[in-house]
Amino acid sequence: MIEIIAYCGLACHTCPIYLATRQENKAEQTRMRIEIFQLLKGQYGMNYEPEDITDCDGCRTGGGRLFSGCRNCLIRKCASEKGLESCAYCTKYACERLETFFGSEPTAKARLDEIRET
């Protein structure tokens, strides 16, 4: 699977929503979406229902399917408006919004730091 890195540093190929999108077995896809719903509610306090877990091709895909949480992401919006491939290339890296995000997703910070070093 191709490694797609979101603006914020998340790896799409490890995202449960991205993986559910690629699941061909509909029963398994439904099971995965219920797990995602439970994860979003329990870990992040997001008030989604299982049917709200829509397909997603990654936040950097132009015109592709996009999960509503990604569509409404302020980090994505900022990087996209600046025409950046990644937040790693921003002159304001790491901004306050990213620093807050990194508190719950330290691997995203590590990825962006690695991109900045190359």
Comma- or semicolon-separated keywords:
118 residues, mainly alpha, 50% helix
Explain how this protein is built.
By secondary structure, this protein is mainly α. It has one domain (about 10-115). Helix content is about 50%, strand content about 0%. The protein has six helices and no strands. The chain has helices at about 15-20, 25-45, 70, 75-80, 95-105, 105-115. The two termini are about 20 Å apart.
Topology record:
Blueprint: H1 16-22, H2 26-44, H3 68-71, H4 74-81, H5 96-104, H6 106-117
Give the proportion of residues in helices. 40-55%
The total of beta strands comes to: 0
What structural class is derived from the secondary structure elements?
mainly alpha
Number of helices: 6
Indicate how many domains the architecture comprises: 1
Alpha carbon gap, first and last residue: 22 Å
**Oligomeric form of this entry?**
single chain
Average pLDDT across residues? Answer: 90
Ranges where pLDDT stays below 50 over 5 or more residues in a row are none
The whole-angstrom Rg is 14 Å
The major sheet is characterized as: none
- Quick one: overall form? globular
The helix/strand series, from N terminus to C terminus, equals HHHHHH
Strand content: under 5%
